[in-house]
Design a protein that fits this description.
By secondary structure, this protein is mainly alpha-helical. Among the domains are: 161 residues, Potassium Channel Kv1.1, Chain A, CATH 3.30.710.10; 95 residues, no CATH class. It is built from 16 helices and five strands. A five-stranded mixed beta sheet has the order 2-1-4-3-5. Helix 4 packs antiparallel against helix 5, helix 6 packs antiparallel against helix 7 and helix 12 packs parallel to helix 14. The chain is elongated. It starts with a strand and ends with a helix.
Length: 443
């Protein structure tokens, strides 16, 4: 930190002994980071007359937070055809902070350099450790001037979250600041809070009225509060309604219009509910009637089964067989559900068919028992048939062997005779041969 005797501007600065840390830097900002500062401002030294402090700043930090500073540096860079500032030639931007108190300026710089610590810094300022409420409202004014939207909105949200603590300290100062900076959103929040406090009871209203100085407030702000208080007798206006306040009486008119819209919506909802309730009741009645018809149909089926002997009229699944034998009731649980399938079918025909089926059932069961008994005897018959077939095969084999032996006996004499005849012929020929040969020889 450096001090300068009198005047503002550049040279002649001297180092402060002991190297006091800059109050707006983050805890982890190093000395090397401080030496890279390419901007500076000059502020009056607190508690000293004629002394000023030169505070080093960084263009990257302020350009990120403040759109006005970024535009100024970009314009200077274009004019100079190069960098607008550098650590060797820092730029004085004290005019951007002109008119702001030292506590408000330091609070703004602390929030810009370390946004995460902004709530703690704002709380410390509110408690009076860093300038009190004037420092807080001055910080809002500086953020609004430098177009630091994120810092401004963060501070406003923090204040509204603690409105009973923050606004109640000096409601007149808050309302005046909102009107001066033309922060309609803040003014709407303040007005809605003030009117709600006035409605809490005599004690709360008296405490707030002691702090509200209507003579200091802008005329439209005072009129807005009175209009809101009158409208709140019917329905408290929202903060958005205050932010869009259109003059005396506008809030009462707005509340009346909202009440009319709400009444119309409630009437429409009631009519829709009544209509929907009638349809629901009709549907429930139809469902109940269908259940009753279904139960009646099954009761009739059970009564028909009781006339039969035992449970012969039921299948294994427990359902009466005659219900699946073409007997479909024309009335009962199917009425109104499947008319296209039940058209032309009469309940009386189904009962007659069921009775006929029940009468024929004993004969069919007796025939089935005979068939089952015959099927049980089939294995024994099959075993005897096998033995008979084996005996028949043996008999056939014996007959074939006898016929073969008889044929062989008949053929044996004929074969022997044939062999004898063949032997005689051969002997005669043998005797004549030489004779013929001799005759030829003699000749």
């Amino acid at each position: 930190m450096a001090k300068e005797p009198g005047g503002g501007g550049g040279g002649g600065s001297v180092d402060v002994g002991g190297g006091e840390p800059l109050p707006y830097l983050a805890p982890d900002d190093s000395q090397e980071f401080v030496q890279m500062a390419d901007l500076f401002i000059v502020l009056p030294q607190e508690g000293s007359q004629g002394l000023q402090e030169r505070l080093p700043l960084h263009s990257q930090v302020l350009s990120r937070s403040c759109a006005a500073v970024a535009q100024m540096l970009a314009s200077l860079a274009d004019e100079r055809s190069g960098a607008a500032c550098s650590p060797a030639h820092p730029l004085d931007i004290s005019t951007c902070f002109a008119g702001c108190s030292r506590p408000a300026t330091l609070l703004f710089l602390a929030c810009a350099y370390n946004p995460d610590a902004a709530p703690a810094r704002l709380q410390a300022a509110l408690e009076g450790n860093s300038g009190g409420l004037p420092a807080l409202t001055g910080m809002l004014a500086l953020a609004h001037r430098l177009d630091a939207g994120r810092l401004l909105n963060a501070a406003l949200d923090w204040a509204h979250e603690r409105r009973d603590e923050v606004y109640s300290q000096h409601p007149t100062l808050w309302l005046s600041t909102a009107a001066a900076l033309q922060l309609d959103g803040l003014r709407g929040r303040l007005a809605a809070w003030a009117v709600s406090r006035l409605q809490e009871g005599p004690a709360a209203a008296a405490t707030l009225l002691q702090k509200l100085d209507f003579a200091v407030l802008p005329p439209d702000t005072a009129a807005m509060l009175l209009d809101g208080l009158a409208a709140a007798a019917v329905a408290p206006p929202s903060s958005a309604a205050y932010a869009g306040w259109g003059g005396p009486g506008s809030l009462c008119q707005r509340v009346a219009a909202l009440e009319a819209e709400a009444a119309a919506a409630e009437a429409a909802e009631a009519a829709a509910a009544q209509e929907g309730g009638g349809l629901d009741a009709l549907f429930e009645a139809q469902q109940e009637q269908a259940v009753e018809d279904w139960d009646a149909g099954w009761d009739e089926a059970d009564e028909a089964d009781l006339d039969l002997e035992g449970d012969d009229g039921d299948w294994d699944d427990g359902l009466p067989a005659h219900l699946f034998d073409g007997a479909h009731p024309a009335e009962g649980p199917f009425e109104g559900l499947l008319p296209e399938l039940l058209e032309g079918v009469q309940l009386e025909d189904g009962e007659e068919q069921a009775a006929a089926a029940a009468a024929d059932w004993p004969d069919e069961f007796e025939a089935w028992e005979q068939q089952a008994a015959a099927a049980q005897e089939a294995p024994a018959d099959a075993g005897g048939w096998g033995e008979e077939f084996e005996a028949w095969e043996q008999q056939q084999a014996q007959q074939a062997a006898g016929q073969e032996a008889a044929g062989a006996a008949d053929e044996a004499p004929a074969w022997e005779q044939q062999l004898a005849g063949d032997g005689g012929g051969d002997a005669g020929g043998g005797a004549a041969g030489p004779a013929v040969g001799n005759g030829n020889a003699a000749t």
